[in-house]
Amino acid sequence: MSAISINGKTYEIQSDPDTPLLWVLRDELGLTGTKFGCGVAQCGACTVHVDGVAVRSCQMPVGTVGTRAVTTIEAVGDTPAGTKIQKAWLDLEVVQCGYCQPGQIMSATALLAANPKPDDAAIDAAMAGNLCRCGTYVRIREGIKHAAQS
Question: Among the residues of 98-149, which ranges form H helices?
């Protein structure tokens, strides 16, 4: 048994240290907002923050998290950048099917927290690897720009 800090709360987890963080979040803790996409850290659906940095939880063994703070889509709206991104997503109706959006929001929030006024190149770099099957990339970019202006 080990402890992990998720969304400001400490949880005692039973999972093996090699278990991907994604499965601990979803299966052991019931935090199902983080999605499974590809399982090989290529699509971004499973993105969470570890100490504010966007990471792919499907490939991160829970044992490597240690004492670092994990933030999931369930709590990202409690952060200043997360609040701005979520409001922009609603204002501009960014979401289409929505499956990839938790990962998109997590990556966009990490970008805005680190760079409050990103240019197109910074947005491209931060969002690279976050795939959207519906092709809402233009709306995602506009959402990030909208959030940066608020």
Answer: 101-114, 120-127, 137-149
Task: Say which residues have a Cβ less than 8 Å from residue 56's Cβ, sequence separation at least 6.
Answer: 41, 44, 46, 47
- CB–CB of 70/48 below 8 Å? yes
Instruction: Report the Cα 38 to chain-centroid distance in Å.
Output: 15
CA within 13 Å, CB half, 35: 18
Q: How far apart are CA 52 and CA 71, in angstroms?
A: 8
pLDDT tens-digit series, residues 102-136: 999 999 999 999 999 999 999 999 999 999 999 99
The distance from CA 61 to its chain's CA centroid, rounded to whole angstroms, is 16
C-alpha distances (whole Å) from 65 to each of 75, 92, 115, 137 are: 18, 35, 24, 31
Is the whole model's pTM more than 0.90, yes or no? Answer: yes
How far is the C-alpha of 132 from the C-alpha of 100, rounded, in Å? 6
Residue entry with tokens 């990962």: 103
- CB 66 within 8 Å of CB 26: no
Given a cut of 90, whether residue 33 has pLDDT beyond it is: yes
